[in-house]
Each structure stands twice: as C-alpha cells, then as structure tokens.
Amino acid sequence: MSNPSPKRFYKTAAPVEVGARWTVALDGRPLKTPAKADFFVDRQDLAEAVAEEWNRQGEILDLTGMHLTRLINVVIDRTPSARPGLVEEIVRYCETDLLCFPPIGENRDRILEAWRPIRSWAAETLKIALNEAEGEHLLIGQPAASLEASRGYADACDDLDLTTLGFAAGLYGSALLAMAVCEGYLEAGEAYELSILEEAGQAEKWGWDPEAVARHDARRQEIAVVQTVFSRQAKNISQ
Question: What's the pTM?
C-alpha cells in the first residue's frame, strides 16, 4: 500500500544566503535532503527557483512534481559517489545518440536537416564527431576518439552539471542535445522539440494522441528545470 502524500507543513519557503552558498528555509528551518544532508546550492537563482517550487505547493505536497528540488537532492546525496557511472552513462548515450539515427520515411530529409547542424557543432566545438546510421542499419560504431572526448567532457562537469547532463540526455535520448543546452548553443525547450521531430511529423498527419500530449507536457516541465540549471546568464557565459 503506497504512502499518502504529505500535507503542507509550512507557510512560506525562502532562499537564504549562508556564507558563499544558498539554502532554502521553510518557515525559517533550512531544508534537508532525503539523506538528511544540508541542502545547499552555489547560486542564488537556483535557491530562488527551489523556494518557488515549495511555495507553489497546495495543501497536499506533490513531491514528484518538484523537479528541481529532486534534482539537487540527487546532486547532494548521490552524485559524489556515483560520478564514474554517470560519466559512462553519457558515453553510452553518445554510442546510441538519437541524432545519429534519423528515421526512415517521408520526414527523414527534414529531420536530417534539423539535426546535422548540432552534430557539426559538437564535432567542431567539442571534438565529438559521431557517425550517422545509413538506411535501416541500426548498429553503428562510434569513433573511439569521440567517445573519449565525450568522457572527458562529462568528467570535467561539476556535480550539478553532470547530474543535469544525464537527466537531460535521458529526456532527449541524446547526449549531443544535452551538451548543446549545457553550452548555451540551444535552449532546453528548443532541444526537446528537436528530439521529438519524428513524432511531431506523424502528428502533423494524424493528429496528436491525448496521452502523448500529456506526456510531452509533463516532460516540458522537467525540461524547464534543465534550462534553469544550464542558464547562460546564471553561469555568466558571455553572449
């Protein structure tokens, strides 16, 4: 029998500066992670966004919908000990990256035209040049140098970016799209629309299934968290 969702036990959530870091306090009491660690982030905008998640809650807490809070909990509780596996997960996404497998069908050329600039950007900027499947071949090898470059890229990320990179790659089915958002080459929502081009092409012809619409709406809420973390302004990346 599943546990009932907890009732709201606080009135307000607010970001609080603690030295060079930030936490979020519920009625003045600092948040803790599920592992009872102190909840800290290095950026004010992230603390503000987490506080907003808690303030949006109704009488019953929707913990599963608090995507940024959950992501940062993972960063604090799990990522430090799981880094090697998370790095290799990014490499595996590159081995089977969505952008390397354009669909067979009438929308193939349009999708290729949309995807190839991202692959070219990754090859030129990140030195991650991935092979593209031809025809109906679903098994292709990727250059060892490119996979090593992807490993180096992931390993150079701090815990927050690495965790978000893996989260985004899972949503997109593409490490290249996740990296493009991390680097500010694409917005997170733009990358998501690129990841569902095949489904969108079918929907243009047959219409959207209500369940698919609901699924994508839910994922776009998660995608918004990716954009928050990878915000170029917050990371002080020059335009």
Answer: 0.91
